[in-house]
Amino acid sequence: MRIELQDISAGLHPTQPILQHLSIQIERGEQIALIGPSGAGKTTLLHLLGLALAPQSGQVLHDGRDGWRMASGARHQERARIMIAPQTPPLPPRQRVVTAVQAGRLAHMGFWASLRAWLAPRDLHEVQTLLAEFDLADKLFERVDRLSGGERQRVGLARLAWSKADLWLVDEPLAALDPVRARQAMQVMTRWASERELTLIASFHQVDLALEFFPRVIGLREGTIFFDAAPQDIQKQDLEALFENEPLQ
Amino acid sequence: MTSTRLADPSPALHDPASRGRFILGVMLFISIWEMGRLTEFDVNGLWGAVTDPAPRAFLLGFFPPAHSAEFLKLALLETWRTIAIASCGMFFAGLVGVPIALVLTRVLSLSALGNLENGSGWISERVRQFLRYVMIFLRSVPELIWALLLVRVVGLGPTAGVLAIAITYSGMLGKVYAEIFESVNREPTLALLNQGASRLQAFAFGLLPQCSDELISYTVYRWECAVRSSVVLGFVGAGGLGQQMDLSMKMFAGNEVCTLLILFVVLVAVADWTSQILRKVWG
Amino acid sequence: MNGRVIAILSLIALVICSFVSLDLKLFSFFEPDSFTSMVRFMSEFLHPDVQPAFLFKIAAASAETIAMSALSTLIAAFLGLLIAFKARGVRPLLNVLRAVPELVWASLLLIAVGLGPFAGTLALALHTSGVLGRLYLEAFENQDPGPAWALSASGASSTQIFFFASLPQALPQLVSYTLYRWENNIRAASALGVVGAGGLGQMLSFHLGLFQMNKAASVIAATLILVTVVDAFSDTIRRRLG
After folding, report:
1. What is the domain count for chain C?
2. CATH number for position C76
């Protein structure tokens, strides 16, 4: 999916937009890492890109279409092509992993398919294969609240992978993961994104992993783009300036 | 995605919850069917309710609500009587409930003075246990049944209602008051007892001030419940708005029933408003 | 004047006025006629009728009462969910359903659908759906909006969001409320019979009307047992789930 942001201002309060005069162009199949200090607006930007937050001024175009100019029904259909994975995995505590993962494809399931998935999930094998990539194959029927924080985060990523979206927006996917698992998750995510030719945009606190795995890195600071370059073109001073007044990760 | 793969080595997966869900579903279906039969559930009857002439006329007769001066005077009088029944009932309930709650409060027990953790005397404990069972009994029998019994004994009218409320609510008040008394900080009360104050004095000056807010709050809430109860008890002849509603329904006077229902809703709202003001003034 | 003093004085005034306006015949207990009949009633009461034929009738009435309470609670849970799901502008309806006591609903419905447990079941269902609808609505409003938000952002329909996010999150709370209302409804179902809505209440009313105190005592005992059993059962389920 090709995305274009034109002179965007967005935020939760009308008088204090978090993002100001932002313009970005993203081509189909690009993989971008979003880094920056807390409060820079990374989550706001992801929600904006995901049609979950309307801009106060400017336009957000997905494949040339402005979602906020459409009727709400058409806009909702547009959302079926996008998947946001929030920082805290949005999984109901007592739900089982298999259902939590399959919920990723709800927008593409009709009434009867949804009812069946709710009562007696099918495609168990496929879900398990997916979970195996994250070493969660044996947790297929486990309840979400019986998993550790790291396992829950990986289930959130599995749900992302199960969806049929062509734009993945991932908010701090590695927060609860130890270094080994974090690396594994990155490898799986970026590999899938390449295989399916998806557009992947992920925000990080772990700058080193971001620089290692992504060909394009955008640094966000106080709602504006600090830099937008390939990792090899980013200098240490740029990173220090980006995170000024905040300890470097 | 299909689930058939030729070179798939792993065994077929089976949802462990599916069997339980299926059984639950079947049991639910059978239970509902059986319960429908036991309760003589009759979907056609529902349809008949809106199409048959008698019920239909009754429902349509609701509008406009009766508003003759004569009927309104009667209705308002009955509304006041409902409040009166609830208030008298609560008064008696408190009369019985408070002493019981006091007896149940261990901190006021003289035999436990200085020995609170090991409990009071054997007799006191038996008495307390007995009182607790009495209160459970008083609370568990629905007040409607008490009212029904009392109407046979004392006749139709508000007396049966007052007594029914007094009986049931004394059980409730006794239990909750006792819990509130027990939950209060014991030091002030113990200090007074050790000084030689009588138990009632220790209660009034040590215990009561600490929990008066909670007591008022709960009592007022129960009074509201009592007002609603009195209406219900009226249907078995215990006086008030309920009895009048019952009469009007038996005469198929839909317009009167409508007025009475409106008055009931207003009554409940007024009771709620009164309780809120009282709580605010007190606290 | 101190607010508290005014409050106390008003309460005293209320109680005095109440006593004055009612014609309470409290001392009628002690009149010779009622006293002797009371004593006779009491003694009959202490010898409940336990003949097998009668116990069988009690069992049948108990089954009817349990069925009334359980079925009405289930219907109310279903209606309550429906109402909570389609939450717009629904609060006034819920308030009306809740405010009108079960007995009043029952009396109205008896006229509409005739005597018997059907009217009682409907009455309980209507009143309880108001109560549960409001409790369910609050449970949904107070829950963590994260899962529902995420599903909405992925394009799921509101029904799908309900079943895959809102409901699973709120379920323990909803079940707890529903079981609690069942405990209430078993008491209400026992009582509704007095206006003709079947079950133990109707039996009680019948036998009291004939002054058959020994039979009435059995029915009341059965009611107490029923209420205790349902309370215990519901507590066990709640503890298992919680």
Report:
1. 1
2. 1.10.3720.10
Q: In chain B, positions 2-21, which contact chain A (CB-CB < 8 Å)? A: 3, 5, 8, 10, 13-18, 21
Per-residue pLDDT tens for C17-48? 888 888 777 766 667 777 777 788 778 888 88
Residues of chain C positioned with their CB less than 8 A from the CB of A78: 155
Alpha carbon of C125 to those of B232, C70, C106, C121, C182: distances in Å?
Answer: 17, 10, 10, 6, 11
Query: Residue C105's domain spans which residues?
Result: 49-241
Q: Which residues pair with A32 in a beta bridge?
A: A201, A216
Please tell me the predicted confidence (pLDDT) of residue A31.
93
CB contact under 8 A, B15 and A98: yes
Please tell me the distance in Å from C150's CA to the nearest CA on chain A.
6
Are the C-beta atoms of A30 and A194 separated by less than 8 Å?
no
pLDDT tens profile B39-58: 888 887 777 777 777 777 77
C-beta of residue A4 within 8 angstroms of C-beta of residue A61: yes
Cβ–Cβ below 8 Å for B88 and C113: no
Outline where B52-197 has alpha helix (H): 53-60, 69-104, 122-140, 143-154, 158-182, 187-195
Complex-level ipTM: 0.90
Domains and CATH numbers, chain B: 69-282 (1.10.3720.10)
Within-domain flag for C33 = no
Architecture in CATH for domain A1-81+166-173+197-249: 3-Layer(aba) Sandwich (3.40)
Least CA distance to A109: which residue of chain C? C156
Terminal C-alpha separation, chain A: 31
Question: What is the value of pTM for the model shown?
Answer: 0.83
